[in-house]
Every structure is written in structure tokens, then in C-alpha cells.
């Protein structure tokens, strides 16, 4: 008799941690482990602003799945549809081929995509900070704007190319703006004819406060650091319209701009919508033990699941952070193994350890375990946390070495050209239009004879 098949969708924090722990908990003959992922690495998302600014190389934040997983078969592709009745997942492999993967137990960790709104031009001109490709493209693009501005004799064009807008006042947007602003202000010194005063960075958010999850004091400290560096922070304001060379804000300001970086929150993977199950603001509703009501053998966790926060109680839902995703991965592995062995399942519980926000240099604001830190102590905590969270010694060494080299030698501001010819939209980078309808899923499953 064949061993039960455990199919894990997604190789991010939650998916990789779940597979890694299942390899330890289950014997080789207890279950067949398969993981579906379009990439062969776990991406350490919190450090993408460091990659976009060139402080870290892409390889430093890409932890190879095969270094962590020894007996889990990796299916190189993305899940584009699920039929829970047939217990089947439709996968589009990286070569375009579609296959149907059956399962006995399904662990859904498809993650999230950049949240978009129905704002004219955002889908065409904005880029997010969710993938390595986006981070690499942003770095090349920002440096190319300096190159083109330096080569132009037109004042209007220079103004457009030296104005940069980041939308989103959460930690991702703040870190991205902080690191890229440092990059441009350092790089411009090597461009004859350009001056630091010509560079304009704008951080825009509809919320009334910057990073409210940090508390008022740390949020105001972060705001003061950003403003002292020359970043224009606009709160209570959003984007009304975007064109190739302008960003119009809801307060009627029109900014000449050719760079719009969109970090205004995340939305669950569109894969969740293919299930036809109950959702909470797009996230799949799950029980505290991470099982999905009404779907046999299905567990869901990470950014795409509305996991009840039993520590806070009430209707609280765990926020979509890396620390929750990793620990939910461990909890899911325990519960999947328990389900296989006919044992009771346990609820997921974890008290949030706080946030760290790295603003570059010796500047940071951190709130570990409720303790408010700023400046160098906060930076030590922030980088120490990231090094600890990286899953291999190799990744930790690469990251620490990159930080050290950058601190001593600085950056050379080189355009790699790796993403030069690809379309640069949220849809193209994050493939949000790859998913099937319920009817298409049924057709694929029927043709596979399941």
C-alpha cells in the first residue's frame, strides 16, 4: 500500500518550515512529502530592501530549499487551482506544462501578493517589493534614472527621473524608502552635474501615523529620521492617478515621477479564491489547529490564512509576519503528523515578539518583547534578529559579510541588466493572472481521470 501523500503548496517561511519539520517527525515510510514551489529557494522577504539598495546580494537572502530538505520532492512550478473534492492541485510548471498533483493531506502556504487598488495607472506603472526579481529590477531602475538624468539637458526630464515615490507606511515601505534614499544620495556624488538637492523621495500612506504597530513614540522617531534625511512623508494621503511620468495624489499634488514603488499592504494569494471556501478579508478561514472547516485533510497557514490569535483572544487574527509564518509551519507539521497517526491536534499559539525596522547605517527602531529601542541598540537587535531567522549558516555568513563589506567599502552602484528586457508591472512580476476558474479546474481534473 502506498504511503499517504502530503502535498505542501509554497516554499516560503511557512511551507519550508513545515516540510523541514515533517522530515524530522515522520519516517521515510510513513508519508511521501512533495512541495510545490516556482522557485528553488526560501526567500527571506524582510531583507529585500537591502537587496534593492545593493547592500546585500540576491543570493544572501535566497535560502536553497535543497539545502534544508533532503527527502521532500520539489515540484518546480506554481499551484494555479485546487479541487478539494478530488483532492487534487493543478500545477503550472516553470516550463509551462500543466500537471495534476493528488494529495491525502494538503498544506496550503501560498503566501501573498502586493495589494492593488482600482487606481488608474497603478497596474501599469507600479512595482512591488515581494520578489527577488522586483528587488533586482528596482535597483537597476533607480540607478538608471540617475544615469539618464545626468545625460539629459532638459530640466523637466531631470526632475521626473530624480523624483521617487514609495506608497505604504508600514515597515516594508519605510525600509525601502530609507535604504533607496541612502543609495541615491550616495551615488549622485559620482555624477558630475547632479546634486543631492535635486533628488526627491516621497513616502505616502493613507494612515494618519507611520508604522502604528510600533507605537506612537517609535513611529514618531522613525518619521523624524526620515524627514531629517530629506524624505517627504505625506500621511492621510493616497494616490489618485499614475501616468508614465507623473503621480497624482489625493490632495491634488502632481509629482513629476518615473518611479513608483508600491508597498501598500499585501493580499492573500489568488490561489485561495479557487477553493470556493470561506474567507476573512480574502484570507482562508481556519480553525486554531490550522485545519480548514469543510475541507478534508486541508491545512492552511501563513499570509493566506486567517489564523485565530488565541493568545490575544476574541476575533484577533495573526498578522502576516515572518515570525508567525515560521512558527505556524512548525505547528502545522506537528498537526499533520498527529492526523496521520490518529492523534489529537493542537492549537497554534505564539505571542508576538515585536517588530524591528532597519533604516540603514546605525539608524533603526525596534520593539523586541515590548522594549522600545532606537539608534545603534535598535540596529544591533534588528540585524541580530535577521541573522538568527535566516535558516542556514551559509546564508547568515553571506549576509553578515555583505553588511560588513558594504559598511567598509561602500557600494559601486552598478546596473546588472538582468531584468532589463522584461515587463515591469505587478502582474508580470507576481503572476497574479495565472490562476484558473472553478470550471477550468474541473476540466483539468476530469481530463486527468481523478
TrEMBL record:
Please give the InterPro entries that the UniProt record associates with this protein. Answer: FAD/NAD-bd_sf, FAD/NAD-binding_dom, NDH-2
**SUPFAM superfamilies hit by this protein:** FAD/NAD(P)-binding domain
- Where the record annotates domain FAD/NAD(P)-binding, the positions are 5-329
Q: Does the keyword Flavoprotein apply?
A: yes
Q: Which UniProt keywords apply?
A: FAD, Flavoprotein, NAD, Oxidoreductase
Q: Which Gene3D superfamilies does its entry note?
A: 3.50.50.100
Q: Which family does it belong to?
A: Belongs to the NADH dehydrogenase family.
Q: What is this protein called?
A: FAD-dependent oxidoreductase
